[in-house]
Amino acid sequence: MNQYKTYHRVLTIAGSDSGGGAGIQADLKTIAANGCYGASVITALTAQNTVGVSGIHAVPVDFVAAQMDAVLGDIGADAVKIGMLFSPELIRTVAQGLVKHGVQTVVLDPVMVAQSGDKLVQDEAIDALKLELIPLATLITPNLPEASVLLNRAIDARDAVRSAAVELLSLGCGNVLIKGGHLESGDSDDCLYLGDEGRIVILRGPRIVTRNNHGTGCTLSSAIAAGLAKGQDVETAVRQAKEYISGAIRAGADYVLGRGHGPVHHFFRFF
């Protein structure tokens, strides 16, 4: 009798980036590079390149639900990664799908603020995120501006990051990772708060100066989801994902692609 192998399955729910550097495309590259099988639910189509976004076409929420039913009803997922969800209706649809299919492991990257500092989602969507989706998350991965939006206050010092991580846990998620790339220091240190243990872990890393930084948040959260899908605990998955994204940024810095912010090198371990 044949002994069939099984994949470690990761489902990404996010928007499509036609330039390939972020969104669904970055997620699927990252998931594959970290040894997992990737499936996708596309929430929006963008006309996008290294310079910027020139158009967005939203996918109707009922079709988002249909995609979730199709994948989770057949293939299943050992972990789900969620990117930007721009409307309250979309957030509710995704949350209902997760509950319907009994998804247990969710990495939520609450993309809400552009690099310019502008909000990308409506205030109503932020409320829906806090009430309906964050409580379902195993881990949320906001950067400092996003953590500030969720808490409705500024976070501008290293000590404040620790208290913010503890406060974010009170929204109902299992664990919190605040990405420290926006701190005004020479390093890129992240703060992981492990909810079950009540323990804070500071993940240190050098700041890599490069214009090729498009899709770093998508890549990190997808790498974490891949680790969790393979059965790693949260701290191990985050540590290995941090190592992966640092290597991808460092390797990607050697390349030129397009006229703006290029991508990281998702497959740096292979070529």
Give a quick precis of the structure.
This protein has eight helices and nine strands. With 271 residues, the chain is an alpha/beta fold.
Task: Please explain how this structure is put together.
With 271 residues, this protein is of the alpha/beta class. The chain has a single domain, classed as UDP-N-acetylmuramoyl-L-alanine:D-glutamate ligase, CATH 3.40.1190.20. It is built from eight helices and nine strands. Strand 5, helix 4 and strand 6 form a beta-alpha-beta unit. The radius of gyration is 17 Å and the shape is globular. The termini are far apart.
- The CATH superfamily turns out to be Ribokinase
Average pLDDT rating = 93
Compute the number of structural domains: 1
Structural class: alpha/beta
Question: What is the CATH topology?
Answer: UDP-N-acetylmuramoyl-L-alanine:D-glutamate ligase
For the largest beta-sheet, the strand count, sense and barrel status come to: 9 strands, mixed
Notable traits:
18% strand, 9-stranded mixed β-sheet, single chain, 271 residues, alpha/beta, UDP-N-acetylmuramoyl-L-alanine:D-glutamate ligase, 9 strands
Present the secondary structure layout.
Blueprint: E1 9-17, H1 23-33, E2 37-48, E3 53-58, H2 61-72, E4 79-82, H3 88-100, E5 106-108, H4 123-133, E6 139-140, H5 144-151, H6 158-169, E7 175-178, E8 190-194, E9 199-203, H7 216-229, H8 234-252
Parallel strand pairs: 1-2, 1-4, 4-5, 5-6, 6-7
Antiparallel strand pairs: 2-3, 7-8, 8-9
Helix pairs in contact: 1-7, 2-3, 3-4, 5-6, 7-8
